[in-house]
Specification:
Layout lengths: L1 E4 H11 L12 E7 L2 E7 L4 E7 L5 E6 H11 L4 E9 L2 E8 L2 E6 L9 H8 L14 H5 L9 E4 L6 E4 L5 E4 L14 H4 L3 E4 L2 E4 L3 E3 L5 E3 L11 E4 L6 E3 H8 L3 E2 L3
Antiparallel strand pairs: 1-6, 2-3, 2-5, 3-4, 6-7, 7-8, 9-10, 10-11, 12-13, 14-15, 14-18, 15-16, 16-17
Length: about 260
Amino acid sequence: MFTIKADALSAILDKVAPHSPAGAEDLNMVVLDCSRGWLHAAAGGRRTLAVARTPVDGAHWTAPLGFDDVCALRGWLESSDQVHVEHTTHAGLPVLHFSEGTAQLTVPVATYMASLSWRSLLLAEARPSSYQRATVRLSAEDLELWQHAGEDVELTPAAGRAAFIVTAGPDFIGLQMPRPRTPGDVLTGWATSVRSRRFLYEGLPYEVGASYADRRGFVWRITARPAPGEEPLIVSADRSSVVLPLAVVLSAGGPLLRLPE
């Protein structure tokens, strides 16, 4: 459990929510993900990925939330200040519990949603390119200048001092000049956020947020790292969201196979 300012939680939800595509049932979600020192909100569609974070002092867990539940949470936060957040189980199902005094909201964890492997995507895409290519820095004000250029705006790398050429159909063209920036790895400062969260159980490694299949073909997800001395729990990746001790699943289904991300 940790405590967070309601406006800090609202801010990270607002930053990523536009990237959760309506109508795409498997991706119409926001993932709240807690790691060492940070609470992350992540959402992605067919062409975008957005991750925002805010500092917290919490445990290691991940919780995909259906977009309707995210909207309900966002509305509940409007009348809140200091919110207690707990990743727990209720009636044998994983939930996120939010409370402030007597006001409470419990949101189901949608483990049946598609996996959003945002850490792997960032590690693969946000590293420096193997070939020389200038990095462009823009501000929100820069981007707003092009919002009325047309419905489909295209950005093409420029050949001279400009950052890129902006076109919108056959009747609009412009240049965007870059803003000064400090060269460096864009993942600098995100090391703790994108680091894998593994733990050992009976000598084998398991990872929070990863999916595993047993010998019967059932898929399971590990949503939280156990505290010292606690039995690790595993959740079925279907709408039942059954929570069982990892030892029980291993006993009934044999060794688990880590599924690719």
